[in-house]
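Collaborator request, handled under Task 6.
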Amino acid sequence: MENINNTDNTKLYNGITSDTGKLSDQEISFDKGISSENIISSGKGILFGKEMSSLILLILLIVLSFISLFVGVIDIDMGLLISGDSDAWFIFLASRIPRLLSILCTGMGMSVAGLLMQQLCMNKFVSPTTGATISAAELGILLSLVFVPGATIWGRAIFAFILAILGTWIFVWFIGAVKFKDVIMVPLIGIMFNYVIGGITSFIAYRYEMSQSISAWTVGSFSQIIRGRYELVFLCLPLIIIAYVFANHFNIVGMGKDFSKNLGLPYNLILFFGITIAAMITAAVVVTVGSITYIGLVVPNIVAMFKGDRMKGSLIDVALFGALYTLVCDVIGRLVIYPYELPINLVSGVIGSVLFIALLIYRLKKGRRAVRLNDLFSKGRIQGNTAGK
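Structure tokens returned to the collaborator:
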């Protein structure tokens, strides 16, 4: 494979103009520790794995979404809906449908936000949680409660957007200014930055007696989602589409400043554009639902184990798996202590921490090698044939 960092022989990638020729998907590796064969797949067998993973996730999401519509304190079944029961239809349309839609948008949005931050920061342990985005959004909500107490949810969203964007920009600028950084140092800087912002938030909340008010946004929960109070989360959908359209640009920026300049991309502009998308998605979720951890950290890493680090090839699966993960956590929270309900943030934190530890163990044993679905199916068929003989 040619040296794609050579300024005299820089090539074109997916419509991005440069000096000569066109660089095929098989010729680029988006991680220094992984060969292009582990990331970009070709051939009939890999096509099966690439398409089937999205199809399987979509089917599971549809089935679980249907089931979740009939899980709750008030019993609603298809018979009541078919018979035209007015109370059942009111609960179904005013609570169950809005809750499901907000769960799907939240899961997709937070997962894609985590994927964006990990790609642009070149670190798999960066997420809206470890990148100070959630803490900055909470500070914005608190400032809106203090200075504009009568603000609507959209007014609070403006404060959250501004503070989330500023907080994430400062974090990215700071880690860019650090000369000696490794995989662990970057999220540690984010965690320390989180505590600084959290301390400021706590001080302001205590000073203006807003501690109880801000606590509603520090613990994410879908229990308060009803019609008319969740529509802001729909903002995640156009932002996800924008992220998909510019996915190749974000991939190249994630490979470094010099590489981006060699391909003629404005590094800083694309970097902060992607960070702004991630911050706005996070702020929209925090204002609507509250803080939810681990989704943006765990989901992109799990999908990357199967799909590699090419953002455009994995973004759809990240969104689908993020929605499925959030929906599973919500259903578990509704059933564990039924008829009471656990906050989604608690369930996601427990499940996410277990998955994160398992992910770390896998990385220690296997490194950054991607898991191929086709290899798993092939091994299963071989073992089955062997057992049959």
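The cover message to the collaborator said: "The domain at 7-86+108-376 is CATH 1.10.3470.10 (ABC transporter involved in vitamin B12 uptake, BtuC). Confidence is low (pLDDT under 50) at residues 1-48. Please let us know whether this matches your experimental observations."
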